[in-house]
Amino acid sequence: MAEVAQRAGVSVSTVSRTLRGLSTVSDTTRARVEAAARELSFAITRSASSLVTGRTGRVAVLLPDLESWFLGAALSGMAPALRDAGLELLVYSVTDVHERADFFDRLPARRNADALLVVSFALSPTERARLDDLGMPLVFVSQHAPGRPSVYVDDEDAALRGTRHLLNLGHRRIAFLQTADGTGFTWSSKSRLAGHLRALTEAGIEPDDALVLSVPDWKGNGMAAAVGRLLSLQDPPTALFTETDDLAFRLLAALRDANIPVPGRVSVMGFDDHVMAGVMGLTTLAQPAVEIGRAAVRLTRAVIDGSDGDHQRHIVLPTELVPRGTTAPPPAPVR
Amino acid sequence: MAEVAQRAGVSVSTVSRTLRGLSTVSDTTRARVEAAARELSFAITRSASSLVTGRTGRVAVLLPDLESWFLGAALSGMAPALRDAGLELLVYSVTDVHERADFFDRLPARRNADALLVVSFALSPTERARLDDLGMPLVFVSQHAPGRPSVYVDDEDAALRGTRHLLNLGHRRIAFLQTADGTGFTWSSKSRLAGHLRALTEAGIEPDDALVLSVPDWKGNGMAAAVGRLLSLQDPPTALFTETDDLAFRLLAALRDANIPVPGRVSVMGFDDHVMAGVMGLTTLAQPAVEIGRAAVRLTRAVIDGSDGDHQRHIVLPTELVPRGTTAPPPAPVR
DNA sequence: TCCTAGCCTGCAAGCGCTGTCATGAAGGCA
DNA sequence: TGCCTTCATGACAGCGCTTGCAGGCTAGGA
Fold it and tell me: Is A254 near chain B, with CB under 8 Å?
């Protein structure tokens, strides 16, 4: 900055004021400083400015994973929005128990970011408490946190509409498949299941425990086993609703391998509208992942700027049923 | 830090020395300081330390995208490795032309990271030059940069082996499909095509220009058109080799929609081993995305620590042919 | 012409650390 | 016992910026 000042023939204070767009700089000076800065392709040392302002110009994102489609999409919604806000993106990916313990123990984000976006992260009460005394605004993304700014979709309502869709097609035996989530890492699928069950109840159908399945090892052979179990029931389901598209893809593969026609014999419905859902022709409930990211940044800016009155704001984004080829009326007439 | 010092009854200098693991601290003092730091869950203000050391403890990653499977996987290889190195991960996602111009114009990473990892980014000479006077170590990931530390796979060799596999199955008419890459955004597919053509030549087959296709709008209807064009050739291909798995997935969908059996009528081979390749049963060439990320971090650490003699190091990772269900001998006898 | 009010600009303190240098304590040796 | 060495610790300057304050300059009114 000293260099820029010298080149422009002004003091560093003036350079600083100019670069931050403060109005107390005359037009001619401003022009000269901007020219000098450009010629030297000066970029501010954020460390120095944050030391004095207490603002880092950086936002931290806590993620349970970096490989999932959803998180990638959410991030890609955040990135340009952050850039527009002049904020940088710091990523903390915490995938295993060890990293997790370490993160909450050391809280490395402390003082190194202006806000923490917690994305799809099922927190224990202790962890929640730790974050609270992080001394940093929190924004919860793709999860609802009572009394805290959060961005999410109404999973229960979406699942309700999904199941209704299946009911409207004439299905009466509808199974619900979820991941067996021992680690408690991802956000819970409880609301989706709740919505599903509510739709059944509304339609006067008694939920059957045998039709709610947690699938262990769903990335491996677990899905084949689950399919076998479901279809060998004395009154097998004619439709399968999965907690996520990822699960649905494996399900589709398992059904293909077992030579069970979709939607001829069973219908399949996913949840997410993963990029591949279109390719696979999967009927699903779309959640606007990119928009969730964008909205999260909007909320974050509000929280950082302390434009108060909205601490504790919530943004609920809409989901949409996307009918494609994996759902159809059941093969046998409704009983 | 002052707080910790007071609580431990020592000076800030001692706290600093302790926390950085310098040896000139007595065991008793060390224990006391560590206890105090833990109790206050003190986290260092990196801004302050970087101001004096010139090290930020942060590594920037420049990506053309955040939604692609490959980049997610590479990032998820980097994240734990960086954490182990005590480095934070700063993400610059530059997806459109405007952002791109802005990035290379302002070079926001300057002085805000200890190194820049350039991932899958086809740089213009000007951009390359800009990065060079960024005054920051560069590491090229998933792309080869002569004279610069880089991590990559041998695309040409991999494609060569892929095409050989098809040749061995008896195919003689093999098409190569690539994305129509107007923007020059992603790394070029030149080497993959080169490998493919080399394999053909090796086998004594004259490459046919009509069998090398750039597919515009491949995420939309472009693929259906391309399939139509190829299969209406007077001597249509019996195998299709795509530049990426993503392309192969769309191809598979287009073939399915056109009722063309795979591998009954045509074989399909991808490149990447995308997570979904297993689900789709796609034969492909696996590149170790996660390991690429890890290796990039290894190189980065070496470059930052200036453990010299290895500026200019290259890591070439192996690819592997993964035969699955989309490749088989051609339907008609070899002519 | 002098005074006052604005506008711009520069000066200097200090943000939270690190690293150099100085200091003090403890121990070894003659 | 006295002197020198070694080790552990503290004091302090300064990293590159921001910001409150002071001061200089210009213009307008009396």
Answer: no
Q: In angstroms, rounded to a whole number, what is the distance separating the alpha carbons of residues B131 and B118?
A: 10
Q: Is residue A121 within 8 Å of residue A63, measured between CB atoms?
A: yes
The answer to the question of residue B197 being in a domain is yes
Distance, in Å, from the CA atom of B326 to the CA atom of B281, rounded to the nearest integer, reads 7
Residue B144 has pLDDT above 60, yes or no: yes
Report yes or no: B240 and B253 within 8 Å, Cβ to Cβ: no
Domain span including residue B213: 155-287
Q: Is the CB of A29 under 7 A from strand D?
A: no
CB contact under 8 A, B95 and A76: yes
Q: Which nucleotide is nearest to A33 (CA to C1')?
A: C9
**Run of H or E including A240:** strand A239-242
Give the pLDDT confidence score for residue B21 in this predicted structure: 87
N residues, chain B: 335
Number of Cβ within 10 Å of residue B247's Cβ equals 25
Residues A99 and A32 reside in one and the same domain: no
Chain B 48-77 residues whose Cβ is under 7 Å from strand C: 48-49, 51-53
Number of domains chain A contains? 3
pTM above 0.90, yes or no: yes
Say if residues B283 and B327 touch (Cβ distance below 8 Å).
yes
Three-state DSSP string of B14-32: HHHHHHCCCCCCCHHHHHH
Structure-token pair, residue A31: 């022009």
Q: Alpha-carbon distance A242 to A204, whole Å? A: 21
Between CA B239 and CA B313 the distance in angstroms is 38
| B65 chain-A contacts, CB cut-off 8 A | 76
Residues A148 and A295 in one domain: yes
Residue B117's H or E segment, with its range, is strand B115-119
User: What contacts A38, CB < 8 A, 6 or more positions away?
Assistant: none
Mean pLDDT per 10-residue section of chain A, whose length is 335 residues: 91 93 87 92 91 93 93 96 94 93 90 94 91 90 90 96 97 93 58 95 95 90 93 95 95 94 96 94 97 96 74 86 96 61
| Protein CA at A10 to nucleotide C1' at C3, angstroms | 30
| A82 or B135, greater pLDDT | A82
Which residues in window 36-75 of A are less than 7 A from strand D by Cβ? 44-45, 48-49, 51-53
B257/B163 same-domain check: yes
Q: For A257-275, b where at least 16 C-beta lie within 10 A, e where not — what string?
A: eeeeebbebbbbbbbbbbb
Q: Which residue of B has its CA nearest to A107?
A: B43
Q: Which of A69, A91, A99 sits opposite B91 (nearest CB)?
A: A91
Q: Which residues of A touch B276 (CB under 8 A)?
A: 249, 276
B309-314: long-range contacts, CB 8 A cutoff, minimum separation 24: B310/B149, B311/B149, B312/B147, B312/B148, B312/B149, B313/B149, B314/B144, B314/B149, B314/B150, B314/B151, B314/B152
Residue B328 lies in a domain: no
In the chain, the amino acid numbered B8 is: A
